[in-house]
Design brief:
3 domains; alpha/beta; 5 strands
């Protein structure tokens, strides 16, 4: 005959967590079922009734009720002394299966380590004319070297996954490789200090704007309408498209407020285009001070731009010399020195070479691509321009906020 079922006690907070587990789709099915057992046991159901209701074995219900009874005092201590999340984790531990011994491992730790080391070697070094490993090729290589007598490609994938190695993936990066490390670090700190001081300067009437161009925005029109998502089906976009040309966006990201101000969307990005954009930007607050953070593109330190900034700062053009001959206009180096002069009401701060990621507007360009460009459908260049400008207005009204800039140079301070 069956024995007496273990009495189930639960607190109000434990009951809330158990109920949530039974309703959460992300909760493992076994955990959800066991949480349901405990709740029904607390309501006075016997094991047979619970087994019939949950369609499971009565013997297992008794095991989990006894497990819960034995852990109840421990759970109460956690509930009283620790954070709510700790109680949820403790309940999951009580209702989870205990570790099982399983069969002994077929591969030693030394063999696994050697396999991972091979995976980190370039295939060319092993005489294979390919750029990256496949699981089958790695399995063949480690067997050829005598590291293991035999191994399947599937097992190799398991070992790679456990080591967080993904030979099938790669991504681009750009090595700044500065010749003068001290100068490089000084420039990085200068940019970061500029971001840190932006809110205070904004209150003093000085704008800090991160500026750059987003080139090659394609006006692609899909040849068939996009099919909206449905339950169990993702959105479907037509593969074929018609090209209607490209547009260039020149944008300013106001560091202190997170807004995008005075955007320019047009066909070209010449030095005159950039200078005109800067002039329109300054015209939004003509008496204020302006600091523009920019990269080292030649159009960002052109003769046209220097003449514009000099005129706005009251510096006579005839004192600037001539391009490639003398004075401020002589070379890129002299023009940059003029543009970064801290005594000017309008000045520039240039990020070091190959560090465009330091420019905050690049982060915002990523937002634009994800929200508008990548899945957009544009009937013409004018349509693309309109939708980009509409998104900027929407962003400024609903989403704009300063980025939390934590980088201060090596190492990263979080």
């Amino acid at each position: 005959m069956p024995g007496k079922a273990a009495k189930v006690l639960i607190t109000e907070r434990q009951q809330e967590i158990l109920t949530t587990m039974t309703r959460c789709r992300g909760c493992a099915q076994g955990l959800a079922q066991r949480a349901h057992m405990i709740l029904l046991g607390f309501e006075g159901w016997d094991n047979q009734a619970i087994a019939e209701f949950l369609e499971c074995e009565r013997h297992g219900i008794g095991i989990w009720r006894r497990r819960w009874k034995g852990a109840f005092d421990h759970l109460v201590r956690i509930e009283c002394l620790e954070e709510p999340a700790a109680l949820r984790h403790a309940i999951e531990d009580v209702l989870s299966d205990l570790p099982r011994l399983g069969s002994p491992g077929k591969f030693t730790a030394e063999q696994i380590t050697q396999l991972i080391a091979v995976a980190c070697e370039p295939p060319e070094q092993c005489g294979r004319p390919v750029t990256h490993w496949t699981s089958a090729e790695l399995a063949d290589e480690v067997m050829k070297r005598g590291i293991v007598p035999s191994i399947s490609a599937r097992q190799v994938r398991r070992f790679l996954s456990s080591a967080a190695l993904k030979p099938h993936q790669s991504r681009y990066w750009l090595n700044a490789d500065p010749k003068d490390r001290e100068l490089f670090d000084k420039q990085v700190r200068n940019v970061c200090d500029c971001y840190e001081q932006a809110p205070q300067r904004f209150e003093q009437g000085i704008h800090t704007a991160s500026v750059d161009e987003k080139t090659g925005m394609q006006a692609l029109e899909r040849k068939a309408p996009t099919k909206p998502m449905r339950p169990g089906e993702v959105e479907k976009r037509e593969f074929e498209y018609t090209r209607h040309g490209t547009q260039v966006l020149i944008a300013n990201f106001e560091v202190a407020t997170g807004e995008v101000i005075a955007p320019t969307v047009q066909d070209t990005r010449t030095e005159q285009d950039f200078a005109d954009h800067i002039q329109r930007t300054i015209a939004t607050d003509p008496e204020a001070g302006w600091i523009f953070v920019a990269d080292n593109l030649t159009t960002h330190c052109s003769v046209t731009l220097v003449l514009l900034i000099a005129g706005l700062c009251g510096i006579p053009a005839d004192t600037l010399g001539k391009k490639e001959k003398s004075g401020v206009l002589q070379s890129v180096k002299t023009r940059k020195a003029f543009l970064v002069d801290p005594s000017h009401r309008i000045r520039f701060v240039f990020v070091p070479k190959h560090t465009s990621w330091l420019n905050q507007v690049e982060i915002w360009f990523g937002i634009l691509v994800r929200r508008v460009i990548r899945r957009g459908n544009f009937r013409s260049k004018a349509d693309l321009r309109e939708k980009v400008l509409n998104f900027i207005n929407y962003f400024n009204q609903t989403l704009a906020k300063p980025f939390k800039w934590t980088y201060r140079g090596r190492p990263l301070n979080v």
